[in-house]
Amino acid sequence: MHIKGIGINIDSPTIDGDLDLLEKALGDFQDIGFDYVEIPVHGVDAIFKGRLNWLQTRLITDILKKFKLKYTVHGPNLLNLMDPSNFQLQKDIFKSGIEFTNAVGAEIFVYHSGKIPLQAQGEIKGEGIRQNSFLKLPSPKKIERLKKIEIETLQELASFAKDLGVTIAIENISPDVEEESIWELSKRFNNDEMLPPSVLTP
Fold first, then answer.
1. Would you tell me how many other CB atoms lie within 10 Å of the CB of residue 89?
2. Cα separation of 184 and 193, whole Å?
3. Taking the alpha carbons of 171, 115, 125, 43 in that order, is the dihedral positive or negative?
4. Does any domain span residue 50?
5. How far is CA 38 from CA 1, 44, 46, 159, in A?
6. CATH number at residue 132
7. 148 alpha-carbon distance from chain centroid
8. Confidence (pLDDT) at 159
9. Are 50 and 21 in contact (CB under 8 A)?
10. Which residues of 6-26 are buried (b: 16+ CB within 10 A; e: fewer)?
């Protein structure tokens, strides 16, 4: 594998839209000797209501050009093409992220693969257990349907990205431990695996 350079990401909560902090961080990273810096599009306030803020993007681009660094872009952490309730907004944000990547001269736009929430919207985590309705898990059909939607949407967005010279990189992400644990527990309950055989035997 050919290694193009060593990079570091900018922590989005640290800069929180403050372009002076962005410039300082870039200067520090260049002084340390990094080759690449990952820019969080959500940390520089470049997208508003799903659309690219071109004025903000130009200001950001002017700052990035002050350094000899190369850049990649990270999409919003909550970007999720498996979110049916906000699908069009998610898609618009993704597309604007690609446009931002092109505008700042970066080649890579990073996206964390989609995730289906276990709880219904507005439901408190763990509430299903307390109410004895243990787990409103998505059906296998729904899971496959949302997977298909994400794949087809990524194919569409990849074509758009290619025209702008941008590559979409799909990155893993740490799971929501609470949700993942509940999911696994539910499968064991459904398969009668939560109790030892001696308890299950009449």
1. 12
2. 11
3. positive
4. yes
5. 20, 12, 14, 22
6. 3.20.20.150
7. 18
8. 98
9. no
10. ebeebebeebeeeeeebbebb
Q: Which residues form the domain of 40?
A: 7-193
List all residues 6 or more positions away from 184 whose beta carbon is below 8 Å from its beta carbon.
none
Report the distance separating Cα 171 and Cα 110, nearest Å: 7
Its pTM stands at 0.80
Inside any domain, residue 199: no
DSSP assignment, residue 18?
Answer: -
Cβ burial, residue 134 (10 Å; 0-12/13-18/19+): middle
Number of compact structural domains in the chain: 1
Q: Which residue has the tokens 């944000």?
A: 93
Residue 202 domain-assigned (yes or no): no
Question: Please, are residues 112 and 171 in contact by the beta-carbon 8 Å criterion?
Answer: yes
Residue 200 lies in a domain: no
pLDDT digits (tens), the chain, 202 positions: 788 999 999 999 999 999 999 999 999 999 999 999 999 999 999 999 999 999 999 999 999 999 999 999 999 999 999 998 999 999 999 999 999 999 999 999 999 999 886 654 444 444 444 444 445 667 789 889 999 999 999 999 999 999 999 999 999 876 665 555 666 666 666 555 544 444 444 4
166: its two tokens: 């941008």
Q: What is the C-alpha to C-alpha distance for residues 82 and 171, in angstroms, rounded to an integer?
A: 15
